[in-house]
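Lab notebook, bench 4. Still working through the backlog of constructs that have no structural model yet. Next entry is a single chain of 283 residues. Request: give me the structure tokens for it.
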Amino acid sequence: MNANKKRILIGFLLALITALHYLIDGNRIVTHILHRELFFIPIILGAFWFGKRGGLMVAVLSSLLFLPKMLIIPKFFMMMHTTEAFSLNALLEIPVYLAAGYLIGHIQDIRHAHWRSLSIPPETRESSDPESVQKTNRRVLLCVYNTPSAPKIARYVMNIFTKDSNLSIDVLGFAREPSETAFDSAEEYRQAKSDNEKIVSELVQSIYRSLIEDGFSGQAVTKDVIRFQKETTARRIVEAQQGSSYDTVVVPGEKMSRTEEFVMGNTAVKLVRELDCPVVTVH
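Model written out:
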């Protein structure tokens, strides 16, 4: 079905539902509730076929067609106690129309943009020829925080990256302060904070020492520890990458259940979404 036929179908549905809304048994609340819900059909079709813009246009048009009779309908129910509740409920349906058109259309716009990006001819994309990649001043950020897989990132770098003068590696530890509410006393909180900082600092030192012993130049490898409280680890890594323009970011992986990932968030997943450089997760 082409775009014009889709528009005609949506227009026909709007006209049909509006006719039912205004012409059939105007004194029955149940009938108006049914007509009110029928408007969702063209709204959903408009959003699904024409994206956010189409969904909002059909939602606004449906609201304009639906509202006039709702504004005068209370006079038909003067003797009924449900009149005010019905009128208010009818008015609240308008934001629901708009939300449905916007959300469904937005999802469709994302899907369409994704599929269009896959259809771009290879010759028009950014060149991935190794010879065209700048070979000087390559910078790698090794992110270290308190996870079991953190020590493995040194082994990954030693196996993958060559020890040349064009490569610089920054070993950066991220020591996030724990939440005070998770502990029964201030003493337990201070101890947990101190232990976390100590573990991160020791990991940074251990990884730094491993890289130097493996043959990386002492001038090419640096180390530091960042201490922070309220921001997430992912946010601080993004800030570090944006401030220094690293070519590659290496992070330790975290094995989390779906519930833990939903509540706490997964650092590696957030970085992949936000950074414009390769992100390597080492498990």
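Notes after review: The beta strands are 138-144, 167-176, 221-228, 248-252, 279-282. The two ends are 48 Å apart (CA to CA). Flag for follow-up if needed.
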